[in-house]
Amino acid sequence: MIAKSQLSYKALPMTDRRSFSEADMEARASAFYEDVRTRHTIRDFSDRPVPQSVIETCVRAAGTAPSGANHQPWHFVAISDPVIKKQIRAAAEEEERKFYEGGAGDEWIKALEPIGTTAHKPHLEIAPWLIVIFAQRWGTFDDGTRYKHYYVPESVGIATGLLITALHHAGLSTLTHTPNPMKFLNDILSRPDAEKPVMILAAGHASETATVPAAAKIKKPLKDILSVF
Description:
Elements lengths: L21 H15 L15 H11 L11 E6 L2 H22 L2 H7 L10 H4 L2 E8 L1 E3 L5 E3 L3 H18 L3 E5 L5 H7 L5 E10 L17 H4 L4
Antiparallel strand pairs: 1-2, 2-6, 3-4, 5-6
Keywords: Flavoprotein, FMN, Oxidoreductase
Protein name: Nitroreductase
């Protein structure tokens, strides 16, 4: 919660300044790419436990993301409780059945065929952690008055990317899941109307028999994703 007394501008010296040689920059960029290219979205999780402290540190990393006016319009709910995970799975699969039974349209279903997804979501119970990401539409000052958040989708998207990368860096696998609608998450997790659920992120270790769709290994070449002027 932000106090109105904190809103005045004050310049501070930059800390944590970094300066590398061109060779070191090239090496660090290449090393990061080689690591992050091994990140895979999976659907086959092990039930091997993951310490809560690891999840907390990864969420703390996500919370360092830039955001519109530094309002940090996100909230993360981490769930390991099997009862709550079962509730989330039941509600998510109900929405997914509607999706696959015609709600999505033929074109969308056709696009998903190479990925091999269905309405069956056992990972929502098997993965040791579900992290539900909420976007906050507005904030509340310490005196109870509301204030508007800016660039909410962009800000939450950046934070989510950092979270996925942090979890990968910690040695974990993830799966993004976006059933539609997701209002059931507010109800199950007792989150306020100011927050809109945008994603369920399953996190944990890949099972010994985990697979990756061949289509998911196809990445656009640099020439198709980068223009330089």
